[in-house]
Fold this sequence. Notes:
Rossmann fold; single chain; alpha/beta
Amino acid sequence: MAGRVSGKVALVTGGASGIGRGCAEKLAAEGAFVVVTDIQDALGEEVVAGIRKAGGQAEYRRQDVTDEDVWIEVVEGIKARHGRLDFLVNNAGIGIGGSVLDMTLANWRRQTAINLDGVFLGTKHSIPLMRASGDGGSIVNISSVAGLKGSANLAGYCATKGGVRLFTKAVAMECANAKDGIRVNSVHPGLIETPIWLTVGEAVNPGANAPPDLDAMSAMAVPLGVKGYPEDIANGVLWLCSDESRYVTGQELVIDGGLTVR
């Protein structure tokens, strides 16, 4: 079903690697023009170059998602170049593990600023442009299974991802009340092979000097017995952006191989 989002314009934050990269590549492959933003400039440009080489359309913009002025610039830039915004994928995020007793207030605030404030700012500044097009739109907020259940040594991360979950539902109801055609949903990845494990590894494997073995973790904890990949999440994001999910809003799409069911 090629071309499922042809003619649409998408903004993907944190699109230089991991799940964000997978989403950007998937949306571009299905016909969307994708604006990839990140603070990892070399990797971001690499993603865009790959999309273009494959025949897709994309551009890269440097963006710190905690900076409201930059959000305004990014959205204004999209308006000037494309005149519309159809999809926002709020993906940028970090993971800081460790005991709540040891976490510094600075790290708590940094994680909250990126994982939760960034989602708020993206939503706040993207909705007006989506409404201006008159065609509705889709906002997909990347949460986590850590936004559905608690995990030892990940209190700060769980707090931000749980916040994203309920923020999503509240904004979905606000848009529904406005009858603006904008749908808002959250996606909750499980054990996915992404760079975030380089920073949260200590939380699940205390004392280790290397990232956790996701294959071993998945074999033990995931009912399907295997880890996931960014493309698995991107497939769900594509569905939530496409017209195939036109009757879906305020929902949680859990993509975790059954992890949260066990």
